[in-house]
Automatic annotation (TrEMBL):
Protein name as it appears in the record: Four-carbon acid sugar kinase family protein
InterPro entries: 4-carb_acid_sugar_kinase_N (IPR010737), 4-carb_acid_sugar_kinase_N_sf (IPR037051), NBD_C (IPR031475), NBD_C_sf (IPR042213)
SUPFAM superfamilies in the record: YgbK-like
Entry annotated with the keyword Kinase: yes
GO molecular function: ATP binding; kinase activity
């Protein structure tokens, strides 16, 4: 049974939290199986696939996933998006209520900052690369709340909330632990922690060892990495070798975020990739419309070419169509993916849909290619090397780094 349970609203977020523990030698996996998906890993992350749901449905899904897995001694991490996409407040409220069915009232320690990707929290408000999140293209394209004030967001779903400002946090782990105890005794259900650096998150994580209770930890990949670093290293057993690779790499960009489009454009400019731009209209047309392209992509993969397949951006794109487009894209790419030597997918919906189409429901996580960009092997009959990445961050070199790591891994396996 897992020692840590991570609940996330999408696949890439689940993976980039769990991989932090894998990097410290703890066996970690991510699953999106509705039932089962359990294994002997010390850390299990579950993708609730709730990013696009309304608040009530997202909350119900989290409660349903958590309830059968509750047991004494389990540490719980609620992964939320570092830019507040989806329904993190409703999901957290449901998580706390469900947890309290078998435990005393719980305190959520909320620290969504991920400084390595430009996300910080100051005065209880999220900032992106130093500017208010509300001023960013990410917020303009997709947001669930009136603003990025975490205190207001959590109070808005009935969670009494306290704030730990940056100056108090920098008093050290003892001061942070004291603030957590005070918030719990004051009947707060959430403590929002400012964090502007990785060191700030590490201070929060070190406070855990000073507590007499286990909070619910709430954050993105940044806080998960800090908590993992505060634990003793594990001894993850070696995995079986992979079968010989059959085809080229399939690199899929299903996200419309600016960072993902810029990385794809940069990778294409460097050369060495076969590019397939896929118009949304083609995906809406169904197999009759896309069969020719599907065969072309599969043939390129079979010929050991590395392929970059990308949904083409359209002005005024309707983000509500994200899930149907991801499912259609997965169907189009299935013949190619079934022959690929390795897979990279940007966007949680894209990664989940494509892997599910291959009959995969979980990934054993091994390492990070870059902060928030986990590398792992699919579990099951076929062990495929996979890299996933959230759409909203990453520099322009990330696809080059991913290609290099996947090719290096496959060469190591062949030589072993």
């Amino acid at each position: 049974m897992p020692r840590w349970l991570i609940l996330a609203d999408d696949l890439t977020g689940a993976a980039d939290c769990a991989v932090a523990f894998a990097r410290r030698g703890h066996a970690a996996a991510v699953t999106w199986a509705e039932n089962g998906g359990e294994a002997d890993e010390a850390v299990l992350a579950i993708d609730a696939d709730s990013r696009r749901l309304i608040a009530r449905d997202a909350a119900d899904r989290h409660a349903a996933l958590l309830r059968p897995r509750l047991r004494p001694g389990l540490a719980l991490y609620k992964k939320i998006d570092s830019t507040l996409r989806g329904q993190p407040a409703a999901e957290l409220a449901a998580t706390l209520t469900t947890l309290e069915e078998c435990r005393p009232p719980a305190l959520a320690v909320v620290a969504p900052a991920f400084p390595d990707t430009g996300r910080t929290t100051e005065g209880g408000r999220i900032r992106l690369n130093g500017a208010p999140l509300e001023d960013s293209p990410l917020w303009a394209r997709e947001h669930s709340y009136a603003n990025a004030d975490l205190y207001a967001v959590l109070e808005g779903v009935g969670l009494p909330t306290a704030l730990l400002p940056l100056a108090a946090l920098r008093g050290g782990p003892e001061a942070v632990a004291a603030a957590m105890r005070h918030a719990l005794s004051a009947r707060c259900r959430a403590l929002v922690c400012d964090s502007a650096t990785t060191s700030d998150l590490e201070t929060i994580a070190r406070a855990r060892g000073l507590l007499e209770f286990e909070p619910v930890w709430v954050g993105s990949g940044g806080l998960a990495a800090a908590l993992a670093s505060a634990e003793q290293p594990g001894q993850d057993p070696p995995l079986p070798r992979l079968p010989a690779a059959r085809g080229g790499l399939l690199l899929v960009v299903g996200s419309l975020a600016e960072a993902s489009r810029a990385a794809a454009d940069h990778a294409l400019a460097q050369g060495g990739l076969r590019h397939f731009g896929i118009p949304p209209a083609l995906l809406h047309a169904g197999p009759v419309g896309w069969n020719v392209m599907a065969r072309e992509i599969a043939a390129a993969i079979a010929a050991r070419e590395d392929v970059l397949a990308m949904i083409e951006a359209e002005p005024g794109a309707d983000l509500r169509q994200g899930a149907p487009l991801a499912l259609a894209l997965a169907e189009l790419l299935q013949p190619a993916a079934s022959q690929a030597g390795g897979l990279f997918a940007t966007g949680g919906e894209t990664a989940r849909a494509l892997l599910s189409r291959l009959g995969v429901q979980s990934i054993r996580l091994l390492e990070e290619v870059a902060p928030g960009v986990p590398f792992g092997l699919t579990r099951g009959a076929r062990r495929l090397p996979v890299v996933t990445k959230a759409g909203g961050f990453g520099d322009t070199e990330i696809i080059r780094h991913v290609r290099h790591r996947l090719h290096a891994w496959l060469q190591e396996e062949t030589a072993a």
